């Protein structure tokens, strides 16, 4: 269940303020529970620590996300956002990373088809470390090999090529990985201000979001170098590859903006939004 009521239950002030700052930054509303207060009877997300939960005599049927000081706080926060925006689960199936390469790199992350989070990275290493962090977070307790999808804009070929090379290096040997090279036509025409009270979404993130709606050239570790060379030399024959329509210009910018906002609010899944675009007459 998405958007469950969320509570912080702790006597650890350091934990509380770290959590509060991050939840505020992500525009996630929460309430505070005291240890001696009645635990909610309706299904809720309760954020607490190993020390605090040990003091509870009654837990009810709630989903507890328990933090240990030995655990990476960033990973803990990622799991909170996933539980709130998508659903509480110990096992998820797929991550999609949509990337707008450039001087700044926009990154949009989807988990099990729903928007999870986004970043504007100033360095390639920051983007790659963020991607690794998310994969590690959701794979570490998952007995199944997650599906990883990467959608990269090909407007700046040198950066896109380096990123694809890095992706195959980092996830060497991983079977369930797909990489797509996306046409960036009209991917920078829209600006989003973000939800009220939330942080502003950068133009690089918006571009990455638009690219996420598109299918492009599916490449693999064996052919991607040749594909990039053909794109560079303008000799690429898309009929030889698994390609799909790559532009969103059949709908108005206003309609596209409304769709993007619904994606960010979790009112649409990525695949359902893409289906809407596919059903638009060209």
How are the SSEs placed, and which strands pair?
Blueprint: E1 6-9, H1 13-25, E2 31-33, E3 45-49, H2 50-53, E4 63-67, H3 73-85, E5 94-100, E6 105-111, E7 114-121, H4 124-139, E8 147-153, H5 157-170, E9 177-182, H6 203-212, E10 217-219, H7 224-233, H8 253-265, H9 270-278
Parallel strand pairs: 1-2, 1-3, 3-4, 5-8, 8-9
Antiparallel strand pairs: 5-6, 6-7, 9-10
Question: How would you describe this structure to a colleague?
Answer:
The chain is α/β, with parallel strands linked by helices. It folds into 2 domains: 6-84, Rossmann fold (3-Layer(aba) Sandwich), CATH 3.40.50; 93-278, Nucleotidyltransferase, domain 5. It contains 9 helices and 10 strands. It has helices at 13-25, 50-53, 73-85, 124-139, 157-170, 203-212, 224-233, 253-265, 270-278; strands at residues 6-9, 31-33, 45-49, 63-67, 94-100, 105-111, 114-121, 147-153, 177-182, 217-219. A 6-stranded mixed β-sheet has the order 7-6-5-8-9-10, sandwiched between helices. Helix 2 (50-53) links the parallel strand 3 and strand 4 (63-67). Helix 3 (73-85) packs across helix 4 (124-139). It is elongated, with a radius of gyration of 20 Å. The chain starts with 5 loop residues before the first strand and ends with a helix.
Can I get a quick summary?
The chain is of the alpha/beta class and 282 residues long. The chain contains nine helices and ten strands. The protein has two domains: 6-84, Rossmann fold (3-Layer(aba) Sandwich), CATH 3.40.50; 93-278, YqgF/RNase H-like domain (Nucleotidyltransferase, domain 5).
């Amino acid at each position: 269940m998405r958007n469950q009521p969320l509570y912080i239950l702790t006597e650890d002030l350091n934990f509380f303020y770290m959590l509060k700052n991050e939840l505020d930054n992500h525009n996630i509303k929460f309430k505070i529970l005291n240890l001696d207060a009645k635990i909610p009877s309706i299904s809720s997300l309760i954020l607490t620590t190993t020390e605090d939960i040990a003091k509870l005599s009654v837990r009810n049927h709630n989903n507890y996300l328990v933090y240990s000081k030995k655990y990476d706080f960033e990973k803990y926060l990622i799991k909170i956002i996933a539980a709130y925006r998508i659903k509480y689960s110990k096992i998820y199936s797929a991550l999609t990373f949509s990337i707008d390469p450039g001087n700044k790199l926009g990154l949009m992350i989807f988990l099990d088809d729903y928007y999870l989070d986004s970043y504007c990275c100033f360095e390639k290493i920051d983007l790659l470390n963020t991607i690794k962090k998310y994969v590690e977070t959701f794979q570490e307790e998952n007995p199944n090999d997650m599906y990883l999808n990467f959608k990269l804009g090909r407007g700046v070929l040198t950066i896109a090529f380096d990123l694809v090379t890095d992706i195959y290096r980092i996830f060497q040997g991983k079977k369930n990985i797909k990489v797509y090279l996306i046409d960036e036509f009209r991917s920078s025409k829209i600006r989003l201000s973000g939800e009220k009270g939330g942080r502003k979404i950068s133009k690089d993130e918006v571009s990455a979001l638009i690219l996420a709606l598109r299918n492009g050239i599916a490449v693999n570790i064996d052919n991607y170098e040749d594909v990039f060379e053909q794109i560079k030399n303008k000799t690429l024959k898309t009929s030889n590859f698994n390609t799909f329509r790559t532009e969103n210009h059949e709908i108005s910018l206003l309609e596209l903006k409304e769709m993007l906002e619904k994606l960010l609010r979790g009112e649409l899944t990525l695949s359902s939004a893409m289906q809407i675009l596919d059903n638009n007459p060209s």
